[in-house]
Design brief:
With 292 residues, this protein is mostly helical. 84% of the residues lie in helices and 0% in strands. It has helices at residues 2-29, 31-38, 42-69, 76-92, 97-110, 114-140, 143-168, 172-176, 179-207, 213-225, 238-245, 247-250, 254-291. Helix 3 packs across helix 4. It is globular. The mean pLDDT is 87.
Amino acid sequence: MKYSKIIRTVTAAIVIAITFFVVRSYLNAHPALIHQLGSVSLPVLISVFLLYLVMFGIILQLFHVTILLCHKSIKRLENFYINGYSIGLNFILPGQTGPIFRSGYVKRKYGIAFKTFLSVTLLYYFFYTLICLSFISVGSRPWWQSIVLILFATAVLIYGTRWYVKKKALDVEKIILQKKWATILLLLTSAQFSLQTLIYYIELRAVDHLVAFHQVIAYTGIANISLFVGLTPAGIGIRESFLVLSEKIHQIPVSAIVLANLIDRSIYIIFIFAIVVISVILHKFFKNWEKA
């Protein structure tokens, strides 16, 4: 297990180094892109930052519903700083560090069994994957092909989920029976994807006004599905590789992908810094409030 972590860390470092080298080489070979990047307007940057704040609000609601599905409740301030730390860890460390941190926290603080938390998380990832594949299909294929592909993907996901549930002896059925909160989980996941699509649309249109909305839908599905290959912090290099290799699907040029991701990464770093600082302050306040 120790060697596995070392291999993952080394692999993550190599992928990030290669990504920076490739991006720098690409920008050096296309100097006009640097000028184009510098011409991105301030309203675009502010809009992306504000939309990421809204996205964080959706993440808070997702975690709130997750806890409710586990028959517990969490205070708003606590929800904020736990998820603030979580996305901070995801950005700094490779792999799915954030979800692991959250599962460990709720087990220690609320006594939520790991299998129960995993059951709800699995339901979320079922919705997440289905929406990913739906976005890719809808954004790149005719409507009738999209319907066929979505139905096929749904059947495969249901079969795979049932196999995993049986293997791990999870209680997903008990979770699904809470129809109200399971439905809200689906709606929040859909809102998460819709907002991410809007963010990518603003970034891509800022660097290439010819990009169409249906292309961004497919782009969003591909970008988000790269989450499952969590080798590097925040998927640096992984997401970009997925998007470049899938160019024939979303048909967005490499130049736009490179520039849009530079904008996205830059704003996201500022966003993460702000959220983590606020989380530290709220955590201290929450501790003092509990002691009072």
